[in-house]
Amino acid sequence: RVKSQIITNSFELNLLVGKMMTIPAFAFDTETNTLNVLGDNKDFKCVGISISWGENNNYYIPLGHVRDEDLDNQVELDEAVTALSKGFARTDVRIFGWNLKFDLHVLKRIGITVKSRDAFDGMLASWLCDENTPNGLKPNTTEHLGIDQTHFAEVTDSVPSSVKKQFGYSANAKVPFDLVLVEEGAPYALDDAFFTWCNCLGYEKELIDEGMDVIYYKMYVPFMFVLFDMEERGVTVDVPRLKKMGEDMQADLE
């Protein structure tokens, strides 16, 4: 990244959305305080959204950092949703992501619907090109770009013990991203979006070189949206009955 910006007010947010309305593609990533983003979860929070389309356009929008230093240093969630919904409502833009389905669920939880079906999931492309290597973003960045990204645990380890205790955690507890200061968490979040952009551009070409582009665009991407819709809709489950079935199966195995 050559240039990056933390969006902290309405003026900056609207400028960003104005740019998003004119570009042919962008990458995005979300930061949350939980991996449980399917359906209702009273503890769920979108902590921030990062957006990138190249070295000179990298933006982090903090939404849910909780430490006192950051309370006036963020965009209100409702305001962000209203503004960003315009950019994500475009149907004529390619959207890059890594494990994109997860981030689509995160946006859905806060009220943003991605309308474009011209999506590119770098994780799926990585697996399709070589199913025998790690398909995470950070291993790909190391393998293809020769850069070691900062890992999540390194960022959250920056939270002092006194802050952990203030929010009800033990001194040696692993804490969620919302306890990280915006200034300390933004570089990590920005890198995730920027390196998603970089790796996905590489995989656009590699899919063609591997002869996997047709199956990727005709089957994998559309089916990702099918799975997303299925997960959003959910299914009614008889939990006691499932538990009894599990006990019966265990008895049969024994």
CA-CA gap between termini:
57 Å
Order of the strands making up the biggest sheet: 1-4-3-2-5-6
Report mean pLDDT, rounded to a whole number: 96
The helix count comes to: 10
The number of strands is: 6
Shape: globular
Strand content: 5-15%
Which residue ranges are poorly predicted, with pLDDT under 50 across at least 5 consecutive positions? none
Main β sheet profile: 6 strands, mixed
Structural class: alpha/beta
Helix content bin: 40-55%
Rg over C-alpha atoms, rounded to the nearest angstrom: 20 Å
Element-by-element helix/strand order: EHEEEHEHEHHHHHHH
Compact summary:
It contains ten helices and six strands. With 254 residues, the chain is α/β, with parallel strands linked by helices.
What does this structure look like?
The protein has helices spanning 10-20, 77-88, 100-110, 122-129, 137-145, 152-156, 161-166, 182-209, 213-233, 239-253; strands at 5-6, 25-32, 46-52, 58-62, 94-97, 119-121. It is an alpha/beta fold and 254 residues long. β5 (94-97), α3 (100-110) and β6 (119-121) form a beta-alpha-beta unit. The longest helix has 28 residues, at 182-209. The chain is globular. It starts with a strand and ends with a helix.
SSE diagram, text form:
Layout (H helix, E strand, L loop, with lengths): L4 E2 L3 H11 L4 E8 L13 E7 L5 E5 L14 H12 L5 E4 L2 H11 L8 E3 H8 L7 H9 L6 H5 L4 H6 L15 H28 L3 H21 L5 H15 L1
Parallel strand pairs: 1-4, 2-5, 5-6
Antiparallel strand pairs: 2-3, 3-4
What distinguishing features does this structure have?
single chain; 254 residues; alpha/beta; 6 strands; globular
